[in-house]
């Protein structure tokens, strides 16, 4: 079953999303997925849609929203802040816990790229039942303030990212969330996945995340997969690894 849903976040903005629910049963473990930078709830070439449908066939609900300023949700891209993303994650999780399709004690937080960085940062705050990180984009933090200040020194406060307006203020806000210290304190089970051909998130970044989780992190790689797991083989392996991780948590 697929449902279009809307929620109002703490700032009064409408977030629009999709929920995938298994056909039989009630109170399912529910995965809340966070999309990446310039992304949306469907993912690159609809990978999140594909995965949500796959997981629904195996007894897991999935919740996917466009973050504020992205996709079909209220706001413009230039209105987005990393603090706001963290607030949206918390608001979405709190909403999910109240829904009759979800087991409120088994909310699983997931994210890819910037969404992985945000999910890891939010995890100590929202304390999900489990955490899944796909190529978490911690690297966007390094040098973010310097890049913003260099632009501002030239009188530039906004960049054009293929038609999206990206303000330097985003990086000033992002600077408050050093990725690894911000992720400390979450003690639940973690699945961490990286493609070996990912040219945006390196192996060292994933090992640094792995070291935070007190031996509770399963770090897996998919041979030849890129940052977006953009092949039929990579998608199948990603689904397989997720299901192997999630099934014992039912």
UniProtKB/TrEMBL annotation:
Keyword Hydrolase set for record: yes
Protein name: Alpha/beta fold hydrolase
UniProt-listed Pfam families: Peptidase_S15
PANTHER family, per database record: ESTERASE ESTD (PTHR43265:SF1)
Positions of the Xaa-Pro dipeptidyl-peptidase-like domain: 12-141
Protein species of origin: Lachnospira intestinalis
This protein's record includes keyword Transit peptide: no
SUPFAM superfamilies per the UniProt record, alphabetical: alpha/beta-Hydrolases
InterPro entries with a match to the protein in the record: AB_hydrolase_Est10, AB_hydrolase_fold, Xaa-Pro-like_dom
Sorted UniProt keywords: Hydrolase
Domain of life: Bacteria
A GO term for molecular function: hydrolase activity
């Amino acid at each position: 079953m697929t449902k279009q849903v809307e929620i109002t976040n703490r700032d009064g903005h409408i977030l629009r999303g999709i929920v995938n629910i298994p056909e039989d049963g009630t109170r399912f473990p529910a995965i809340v997925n966070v999309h990446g930078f310039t992304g949306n709830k469907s993912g690159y070439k609809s990978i999140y849609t594909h995965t949500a449908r796959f997981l629904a066939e195996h007894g897991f609900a999935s919740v996917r929203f466009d973050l504020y300023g992205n996709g079909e949700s209220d706001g413009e891209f230039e209105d987005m802040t990393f603090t706001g993303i963290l607030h949206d994650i918390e608001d979405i999780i709190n909403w999910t816990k109240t829904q009759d399709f979800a087991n409120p004690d088994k909310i699983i937080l997931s994210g890819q790229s910037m969404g992985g960085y945000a999910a890891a940062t939010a995890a100590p705050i929202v304390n999900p039942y489990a955490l899944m990180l796909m190529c978490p984009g911690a690297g966007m933090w390094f040098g973010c303030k310097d890049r913003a200040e260099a632009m501002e020194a030239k009188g530039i406060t906004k960049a054009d990212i293929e038609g999206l307006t990206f303000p330097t203020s985003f990086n000033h806000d992002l600077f408050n969330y050093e990725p690894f210290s911000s992720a400390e304190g979450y003690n639940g089970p973690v699945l961490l996945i990286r493609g070996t051909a990912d040219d945006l998130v390196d192996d060292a970044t994933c090992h640094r995340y792995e070291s935070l989780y007190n031996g509770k992190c399963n770090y897996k790689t998919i041979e030849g997969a890129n940052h977006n797991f953009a092949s039929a083989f990579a998608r199948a392996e990603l689904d397989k690894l997720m299901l192997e991780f999630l099934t014992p948590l039912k």
